[in-house]
Amino acid sequence: MSTGVDIPEGKRLNKYGDLENLELTVEDWMTRWEKKRIGFHEDEIHKLLKKHLDIILNGRKQIRIFFPLCGKSLDMKWLADQGHTVVGVEVSKMAIKEFFAEQNVSYTQESVPGMPSAEVFKSCDGQISLFNCDMFDFSSLIPQKFDGIWDRGSLVAINPSDRQRYVKLMITLMAKGCHYLLDTFMYDQDKCVGPPFSVPELAIQDLYGQSCKIQLIESSDALTDRQRLWGLDSFIEKIHLITLKTDADSGAFV
Ligand code: SAH
Fold this sequence. Notes:
alpha/beta
């Protein structure tokens, strides 16, 4: 079948029929936002976050929750409304501005001392801070580690070659007792091009296993017509709880 697109050797078409690198740059992501190719965005609170929020909270109230690669996720507003402090990082300024506009939250926009390429957008009530920068430049900006992490559309969006660097960074952001909920997909990567990339169970063990305890919380069939259109006949969504091994050693409440 002719696709009308010349496919250079080593490249293939993505699930939208465009020629795409398997490795996305931050510029590619910004272009996606500009072209409104944001099929990953959901217009409702993520059902698995709702279901498993208690696991992140672990009996605590008003905690500091991190959203890596946050997009304009509604989950951030939902948690802030419950009294938690939300910090996100997102490379697309458009995404961050859309978040505040669509959620009707007034905000300030400030430069970040020592990092001319970054800005922070803060809700006027101080509950939500979204950093506009590359995730990999972010660690030096954070004054305080996190009690909870909701990783949805994040590890699965990172180029597989950057995963180790990403996970190393995430681990440095976990405070003692941090409950990190990781949402991933598992599917046949030969059948379609990410993102989201498939993250096999072994990769999770490999990436987090040395420093963290990993518990599988839920594994469910998430195949819909959207994934069938991508050529898939199996699409499994998994939720893992990641905690620091040092928490167990120190007798921290985990
Ligand atoms: N977590 C969000 C968005 C998932 S899509 C949700 O659940 O809806 C991945 C997001 O990460 C995109 O919005 C993209 O612009 C952003 N992104 C990709 N690479 C990034 C990087 N290196 N640093 C910061 N943001 C990045």
